[in-house]
Amino acid sequence: MTHLFHLNQVGAAGLLLSAAFLVAPAAAPGEESVFSFTIARLQYDGGGDWYSDPSSLPNLLAFIGANTRLQTASKEARVQIGDEELFSYPYLYLTGHGNIVFSDEEIVRLRRYLESGGFLHADDNYGMDDSFRREMSRLFPKKQLVELPPEHEIFHCHFDFPQGLPKVHQHDGGRPQSLGLFEGDRLVVLYTYESDLGDGWEDEHVHGDTAEKRLAALQMGTNIVVWALTH
After folding, report:
1. What's the longest Cα–Cα distance across the chain?
2. In the prediction, which pLDDT does 30 show?
3. Hey, CA dihedral for 93, 181, 49, 124, is it positive or negative?
4. Per residue in 69-97, pLDDT tens?
5. Residue 97 burial (10 A CB sphere; 0-12, 13-18, 19+)
6. What's the distance, CA 172 to chain centroid?
7. Please, which residues have CB within 8 angstroms of residue 190's CB and are 6 or more apart in sequence?
8. Distance of CA 152 to the CA centre of its chain
9. 33: pLDDT confidence band, cut at 50, 70 and 90?
């Protein structure tokens, strides 16, 4: 039985996962605990660069480890929807500039992952919007992406963002939006649009973002992880 499905059956999957990471035993010098939290970068077909912003997730994990009680890994994981390990990761991250395509089998399996307690954060890196929305309509045909208001607790659960999602890169100059898909009351997919958090997580020299923007991006990323693991 897959880990997430089991946790979902006994209830409060996020809380159980979070509790496990918060009390994880210390690793030996030079080793990482098997309980260390990591983010799994989702690989996909269609031609989009799912691997973009390579320094982003290691930097975010380091920031989370330094600013919360979560014990974090130093490296991201990488996973495809068809991999058996998919259900071992409570948190998936998807990004890129181009086309995203899921097969029919991947749609079914990703839906089961999300309905069983998993979480997907999709971060538009400029250029994936049309294909991502198309694939989400296939994933949950009866659901609509709903914008989260600034009062939503995801913007206040660890660091405070009174105005909601911060703007990191201009892209088309639109306002940043946090869009969600819900399974009942649980947020299962978060789509950060016109913000580009991942670019703000990258090494400073890559995009030349100000220290203020980079800090806001890292803090918002921390909020998303904390929220996902506790709800």
Report:
1. 49
2. 52
3. negative
4. 999 999 999 999 999 999 999 999 999 99
5. middle
6. 23
7. 119, 120, 121, 122, 148, 154, 178, 179, 180, 224, 228
8. 17
9. low
- Is there a domain that residue 23 lies in? no
In a domain, 24, yes or no: no
pLDDT digits (tens, 9 = 90+) for 142-201: 999 999 999 999 999 999 999 999 999 877 778 999 999 999 999 999 999 999 999 999
162-201 burial code (b ≥16 CB/10 A, e <16): eebbbbbbebeeeebbbbbbeeeebbbbbbbbbbbbbbbb
Cα separation, 48 vs 28, in Å, equals 39
Rounded to two decimals, the pTM is: 0.87
Q: Give the angle 41-42-46 at the CA atoms, nearest 5°.
A: 135
The answer to whether 168 and 212 are in contact (CB under 8 A) is no
Bridge-based pairing state of the strands 146-147 and 177-183 = antiparallel
Residue 26 lies inside a defined structural domain of this protein: no
Domain range for 83:
33-230
CATH number at residue 160: 3.40.50.12140
Cα–Cα distance between 112 and 225 in angstroms, integer?
A: 20
Structural domain contains residue 122 = yes
Cα–Cα distances (Å) from 179 to 35, 101, 150, 164, 212, in that order, read 30, 20, 12, 11, 24
- Specify the number of domains making up the chain: 1
